[in-house]
Structures are given as structure tokens and as C-alpha cells.
Amino acid sequence: MELPAEEMAPVVNRIKRARGQLDGVVRMLEEGRPCEEIVTQLAAVSKALDRAGFAVIASGLRPCAAADDSELDLKRMERLFLSLA
User: What is the pLDDT of residues 35-75, one digit of tens each?
Assistant: First the structure.
């Protein structure tokens, strides 16, 4: 199954922002910033990546549901979805 490129552009942007946030966390650690600030930024990175994963899976569910062997694909997509939990 291929994901539509036009639907993946926002996901790519979200992941790039998360990468920038993660780089910021590394700098914060190197600078000895307070734990609370670091954990707050790590939570933001985690949430951004989770949302990107959910967007990928949501985009993949539509073609899977339309396929003839949708039961197998839906089970696989469900496992992928739950792996993000």
C-alpha cells in the first residue's frame, strides 16, 4: 500500500518540526537547563511524533478498507495503530 504524497506533506513537516524540537532538547541537556523544561519539550516531541504516526495510519486506513482483502489489512493497520499507544 502506498500513501498519497499530498497527504504525507503535512506529516513530513510535522516530523521535521519534531526533529527541530529534539535538537533543542539536546541543546537544553548540554546547557544544563532545568529538568522541568527538558521534560516539557520531550513531551511536545513525543506528542508531535504520535500525531504524525496517527496521520500516517489514518491515511492508510482508507485504501485498506476499500481493498478486497480488507480484513487482513485492517487487522494489520489496527496493530500498527496500537503500537503507537
Answer: 999 999 999 999 999 888 888 877 776 665 565 555 656 67
CA distance 54 to 9: 14
Considering only CA atoms, give the Rg of the chain. 17
Q: How far apart are CA 85 and CA 82, in angstroms?
A: 5
Distance CA 60, CA 54 (A): 10
The answer to whether residues 25 and 70 touch, using CB atoms and an 8 Å cutoff, is no
Grid coordinates representing 10? 503535512
What's the pLDDT at 78?
74
Question: In three state form, how does the secondary structure of 18-64 look?
Answer: HHHHHHHHHHHHHHCCCHHHHHHHHHHHHHHHHHHHHHHHHHHHHHH
